[in-house]
Amino acid sequence: MEPRSRSFYVLAGFFALFVIFLYGPVITIGILSFQGPRGGLTFPMNGVSVHWFHDLFEQQAVGDIWGSFRRSFALGLMVMSVTVVLSVMGGMAFRRKFRGSSVLFYLIIASLIVPSILVSLGVGLIFNILDLEVHWATSGFGSQLTWTLPFGLLIMFAVFNRFDKSYEEAARDLGASPWQTVRHVVLPIIAPMLIGVALFGFTLSYDEFARTLLTAGSYNTLPLEIFGMTTNVTSPVLYALGTLTTVFSFFIIGTFLTIVVVMRKRQARSSSDAGSGLV
């Protein structure tokens, strides 16, 4: 075994610093959320307890924490569902060259370049001009789609660029209709990637702040509620909320990854059963 060079340890050190920089704030908030009842917002900690987590579930003097959480969760599910459906449809449409496809592609990607706050302002102005109510479930939903949909489409473009068309040709040779080919051949093959698109859609929506700032209307989503709490809450209950939302985010990611693992095991089992049946 060859000895590791000095450059390896230098790069490993830089990577360790990057991980600390990335997760250090999250770990700090998690630690401070366990302050004692008389604890403050900074170190050193004044005791250790779960007092602030208990206080989080009590009636708060200001704000609507759990209402904003329900709105963010519902909005994330809405954005996730539409992102998955439109991404699959768009990815399949772009498999064939059509007039204006390049222009349409760049228009889709352009929404990632425009500053998020300008998108939020533009969507809000459009709703005001059309005399429509600015609401998290309508204008907020639309503004967040401009953020999640391009990511979903880019993933689907990469998936279909590597997709083996011989599977579809074999299905058509066996008499399958176009819809049967999509349903029984294409979708099962790309299902793990669809889980990835769904995860992108939900997580990007769940913690989106800038594109929701001017489009949520009178009811805050969770990121807006947390931002509002920073101006009037001066206790570690804010850290407790941050810790819980972080744990919830990791739970969602773990759930989606578990679904992918289960689907791959089922596909492998089905392939082995089909292979044994041919023998």
UniProtKB/TrEMBL annotation:
InterPro entries with a match to the protein in the record: Bact_Polyamine_Transport, MetI-like, MetI-like_sf
From what superkingdom does this record's organism come? Answer: Bacteria
Q: Where are the bilayer-spanning segments?
A: 7-34, 73-94, 103-127, 147-164, 185-206, 237-262
Q: Which CDD domains does this UniProt record tie to the protein?
A: TM_PBP2
Q: Which residues form the signal peptide?
A: none
Protein keywords: Cell membrane, Membrane, Transmembrane, Transmembrane helix, Transport
**Which ranges carry the ABC transmembrane type-1 domain?**
69-262
- Does the keyword section mention Membrane? yes
Q: Name one Pfam family in it.
A: BPD_transp_1
Q: Any keyword Transport?
A: yes
GO terms (BP aspect): transmembrane transport
Q: How does it sit in the membrane?
A: Multi-pass membrane protein
Q: Subcellular localization, per the record?
A: Cell membrane
SUPFAM superfamilies xref list: MetI-like
Mention any one GO cellular component term assigned to this protein in its UniProt record. plasma membrane
Query: PANTHER family from the xrefs?
Result: PUTRESCINE TRANSPORT SYSTEM PERMEASE PROTEIN POTI (PTHR43848:SF2)
Similarity field: Belongs to the binding-protein-dependent transport system permease family. CysTW subfamily.
Record-given protein name: Putative spermidine/putrescine transport system permease protein
